[in-house]
Design a protein that fits this description.
The protein is mostly helical. It has one domain. It contains five helices and three strands, in the order βααβααβα. α1 runs antiparallel to α2, α1 packs antiparallel against α4 and α3 packs antiparallel against α4. 31% of the residues are buried.
Length: 143
């Protein structure tokens, strides 16, 4: 298992992801019916993704505080963020929900922010140093 010493760039990206994910989790869990009505999105979708994001936020906080991280775990976060962004767009494109303008904006904003965070975290992983003192390589970033 490849282990890296997280770069400052990676730590900041993980913290930013935690802050954004935590804010969305809080809004979706606390907002419940009001947010579902305003966005014209299913309450269940908001609550279930909010619960996931709460757990994900906790993971990111732990990761951001660790002196060393498995590169594969960081890669999983990057791939997960790309998947989240694609899923948010696919939900709209496939007509799986019929949100209002605000709901579509909510999903597209999440897609854009999550894709940006994935790129930031990937760059942070590339800037990280291996536990053996060698810079992370492209091989460590390969899927």
């Amino acid at each position: 298992m490849r282990v890296v010493v997280p770069s400052l760039l990676l730590r900041r990206a993980l913290v930013a992801d935690a802050v954004a994910s935590g804010a969305v989790a809080l809004a979706q869990l606390a907002g419940g019916d009001a947010l579902a009505g305003a966005l014209a999105l299913p309450r269940g979708l908001l609550l279930e993704t909010g619960a996931f994001l709460a757990a994900y936020t906790a993971l990111l906080v732990v990761m951001a505080r660790r002196p060393r991280l498995p590169a594969a775990l960081v890669q999983l976060v990057v791939v997960g963020n790309v998947g989240w962004a694609l899923a948010a767009v696919a939900i709209l494109a496939e007509g799986l929900v019929a949100p209002g303008v605000m709901g579509a904006a909510w999903l597209l904003a999440q897609a854009a922010a999550t894709a940006g965070l994935a790129a930031w975290e990937r760059a942070g992983l590339r800037a990280s140093v291996g536990a053996n003192g060698v810079a992370a390589t492209a091989r460590a970033l390969a899927p």
